């Protein structure tokens, strides 16, 4: 029973940290200490250490001195390499997902586009980033291709923390939701090519902005 409890706690901590990476809640270069995380998640150090080791093995985190791990700091070239793969995979996943979306899933995606617009108008960077991750990954998870989804989520774990850089310049706020609104229109029209283009444009536009902000 104790082993089962520890395994469950490890899984809970893993998913919590994973979501924080996807949502951009963790900053590039941020150090994560086992004892601090154990206190934060009300867990012992063993499941926290195991969760961190799993994320290091997946490339989402990197080992650091003094029994800690670190959120990677991506250089411009590294980000552009990840982006080139995302540009190939994510529009494909979106197009495959469109005919499989349920009415409830479509409504949820529309609500997320509105939530992101509201977050931008309120200068709520964290809210926008959570909505952005939720919109993209909720859409892709309907694609019906677990291999494709696993690759995309692995890429998002690496790039999620970088998205915070978009809010270093207040002038970047206004147009961040335009491609999501185009994607929503394509969803409503059941237009797979238009949806794929909107997702491609979103990744490419953000990639161009980030390329000038990364070291």
UniProtKB/TrEMBL annotation:
Taxonomic superkingdom:
Bacteria
GO MF annotations, alphabetized? DNA binding; DNA-binding transcription factor activity
| Segments forming domain HTH gntR-type | 7-74
Q: SUPFAM superfamilies attached here?
A: GntR ligand-binding domain-like, Winged helix' DNA-binding domain
Query: Which UniProt key words apply to this protein?
Result: DNA-binding, Transcription, Transcription regulation
Q: Which CDD domains match?
A: WHTH_GntR
Q: SMART domains given for it?
A: FCD, HTH_GNTR
Gene3D superfamilies noted in UniProt: GntR ligand-binding domain-like (1.20.120.530), Winged helix-like DNA-binding domain superfamily/Winged helix DNA-binding domain (1.10.10.10)
| InterPro entries recorded | GntR_C (IPR011711), TF_FadR/GntR_C (IPR008920), Tscrpt_reg_HTH_GntR (IPR000524), WH-like_DNA-bd_sf (IPR036388), WH_DNA-bd_sf (IPR036390)
- This chain's protein is named DNA-binding transcriptional regulator, GntR family
- Organism from which the protein derives: Atopomonas hussainii
Q: Top-down, what is the taxonomic lineage of the species of origin?
A: Bacteria, Pseudomonadati, Pseudomonadota, Gammaproteobacteria, Pseudomonadales
């Amino acid at each position: 029973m104790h082993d089962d409890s520890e395994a469950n706690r490890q899984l809970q901590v893993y998913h919590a940290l994973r979501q924080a990476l996807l949502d951009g809640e963790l900053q590039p270069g941020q150090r994560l200490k086992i004892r601090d995380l154990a206190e934060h998640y009300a867990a012992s150090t063993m499941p926290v250490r195991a969760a961190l080791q799993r994320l290091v093995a997946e490339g989402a985190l990197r080992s650091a001195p003094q029994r800690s791990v670190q959120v990677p700091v991506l250089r411009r070239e590294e980000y552009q390499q990840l982006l080139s793969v995302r540009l190939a995979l994510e529009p494909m996943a979106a197009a495959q997902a469109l005919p499989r979306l349920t009415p409830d899933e479509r409504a949820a995606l529309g609500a997320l586009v509105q939530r992101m617009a509201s977050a931008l108008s309120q200068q709520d960077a964290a809210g926008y980033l959570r909505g952005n991750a939720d919109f993209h990954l909720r859409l892709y998870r309907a694609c019906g291709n677990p291999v494709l989804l696993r690759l995309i989520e692995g890429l998002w774990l690496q790039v999620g923390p970088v998205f915070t850089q978009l809010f270093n310049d207040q002038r970047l706020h206004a147009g961040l939701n335009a491609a999501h609104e185009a994607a929503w229109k394509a969803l409503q029209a059941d237009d797979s090519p238009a949806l794929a283009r909107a997702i491609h444009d979103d990744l490419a536009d953000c990639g161009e902005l980030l390329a000038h902000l990364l070291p």
